[in-house]
Design goal:
Oligomer: single chain
Number of helices: 5
Radius of gyration: 15 Å
Order of helices and strands: EHEHEHEHEH
Distance between the termini: 25 Å
CATH topology: Alpha/beta knot
CATH superfamily: SPOUT methyltransferase, trefoil knot domain
CATH architecture: 3-Layer(aba) Sandwich
Number of strands: 5
Strand order of the largest sheet: 2-1-4-3-5
Shape: globular
Structural class: alpha/beta
Length: 153
């Protein structure tokens, strides 16, 4: 299985990068991961969203299952997310592109391309922290799928 994280912005915070590296390493026991950092758009809000969407969509692989993270998306428990990922992999998806947009949010073209629009919370998180949360959840999901005792209820 492959998780491709497509994210707007470059993280310069060493502590956040260290956490991302730690969860990527753990996740590596179950799946490959990659991170593509894209530049922030410039201009008006609509111009920014449009430019970022163009960059994001150019990195989406044609046969990947696309998950866009958005505050207005569907909320799933970790167990339901694990069941969802497992179901999609049984259906033949081996590559998942997970999109983290910029500060202005996602353009409608990105939402339209997504197979799933997912929200982690009603709370607002810094975009760089979302990377850590995403990687931890992907590790947790894969540990559940593989019957590893990491997840507890």
């Amino acid at each position: 299985m492959q998780f491709n994280i497509i994210s707007v912005g470059k993280c310069r915070d060493k502590s956040i990068n260290a956490l991302c590296d730690e969860y990527s390493k753990r996740l590596g026991a179950y799946a490959k991961t990659s991170l593509v950092e894209l530049p922030h758009g410039k201009g008006s809000v609509s111009e920014i969203k449009s430019k970022e969407a163009e960059s994001i969509l150019s990195k989406v692989k044609p046969n990947s299952f696309v998950i866009a993270l958005d505050e207005k998306g569907k909320k799933l428990s970790t167990k339901k997310f694990a069941e969802f990922i497992e179901q999609k992999s049984v259906m033949g998806f081996s590559s998942f592109d997970v999109i983290i947009g910029g500060a202005e949010g996602l353009d409608d073209s990105v939402r339209s391309r997504a197979n799933l629009i997912l929200s982690f919370s009603d709370l607002t998180f810094p975009h760089m922290m979302v990377r850590v949360i995403l990687l931890e959840q992907l590790y947790r999901v894969m540990s559940l799928i593989n019957n590893h005792p990491y997840h507890r209820e």
